Amino acid sequence: MDRNASMELRLTDHAHEQYCDRVEPIDHAALHAMCLQQLRTRDYSFRNKEFIHLAGIWWVHNTKRNRMSLVTCYGRTTIDIPRALKWARHHGDRLDLKNQLN
């Protein structure tokens, strides 16, 4: 059985607020439905235990059993956010998520 087909999705208020701020304003329920559909159709190019690049949007997530929680949203970008965050930490720097260059 496809694990994503039975996956439950939780979208935190923080993740919703970050999405609205960094991508576009959208209703919480509509964003949840959109992300769930993208997850079920495997519309992601990267996924590990902490990050998922879902339909071009970077999220921090955690998964327990068959439930994924989207915790925060880093926004729409082609930048490898996990690698960029690691580089920024190593160099004592930060990422500007509002003025990203794609």
Give an overview in words:
The protein is built from three helices and five strands. It has one domain: YaeB-like fold. With 102 residues, it is of the alpha+beta class. A five-stranded mixed β-sheet has the order 1-5-4-3-2. The longest helix has 13 residues, at 28-40. A hairpin with a 2-residue loop joins strand 3 (51-54) and strand 4 (57-64). It has helices spanning 13-22, 28-40, 81-90; strands spanning 8-11, 44-47, 51-54, 57-64, 67-76. Helix content is 32%, strand content 29%. The mean pLDDT is 88.
Q: Tell me what portion of residues adopts beta-strand conformation.
A: 25-35%
- CA gyration radius, whole angstroms: 14 Å
Q: Percent range for helical residues?
A: 25-40%
Number of strands: 5
The number of helical elements comes to 3
Biggest sheet architecture: 5 strands, mixed
- CATH architecture term: 2-Layer Sandwich
What structural class do you assign from the helix and strand content? alpha+beta
Low-confidence stretches: none
**Coarse morphology:** globular
Brief descriptors of the model:
32% helix, alpha+beta, YaeB-like fold, 3 helices, 102 residues, 5 strands, globular
Summarize the structure.
This protein has 102 residues and is an alpha+beta fold.
In terms of topology, how is this protein built?
Elements: E1 8-11, H1 13-22, H2 28-40, E2 44-47, E3 51-54, E4 57-64, E5 67-76, H3 81-90
Parallel strand pairs: 1-5
Antiparallel strand pairs: 2-3, 3-4, 4-5
